[in-house]
Amino acid sequence: MSTAPLIHVVDDDASMRAALVRLLNEVGFEARGYASTGEFLLQPLPDRPGCLLLDVRMPGPSGLELQAALQERHIMLPIVFLTGHATVATSVTAMKAGAVDFLTKPVRRDTLLEAIGRALARDAKLRTELEAAARLRALFASLTPRQRNVFDLIVAGKLNKQIAGELGIAERTVKLARAQVMAKLGAGSAAELGLLAEQLRRFSA
Length: 205
What we know:
Elements lengths: L5 E5 L3 H13 L3 E5 L2 H6 L7 E5 L8 H10 L6 E5 L4 H9 L4 E4 L4 H33 L3 H11 L4 H8 L3 H15 L4 H15 L1
Parallel strand pairs: 1-2, 1-3, 3-4, 4-5
Helix pairs in contact: 5-9, 6-8, 6-9, 7-8
């Protein structure tokens, strides 16, 4: 399987689509062309680094509608719009919805490749964050119910004695659970546990 980033090119103009796919393949990417937003949505999306190079005005659903559909499906593929029908309103809508860039045809090669580079950098950052979130969730899932209760109270700033009273257990039991929580989560202090709790909240938002 290729390790090159995969660039999806959605454009109803066959000659433009072919030219873009050829250019992207020449510079080291793997590019796939689609004649419509519907054709793109019907294809399985591989889990690999990449981005979407997307026209705005096409027969059937528009590029903006595809952008909205991907968001509804929680598909966070970075998008670079490339269109011959640019308006201020359209570009504002696209950028507010999270597009990396909004380019107009004809576009200079360097400008296009720079935009794709930014899209791939965003994709890499997102993938790193998702992997970190998965690891963190796995760590928290390893906690027993009692350890999770102790964790929550530590993060809330409670002392061992207070935690023992609140949970109706011995203080030595709290100390043991505290040590187990620290070991499982790889934390060395209550402050580090607080940071992990904040990360978990952010990833779950």
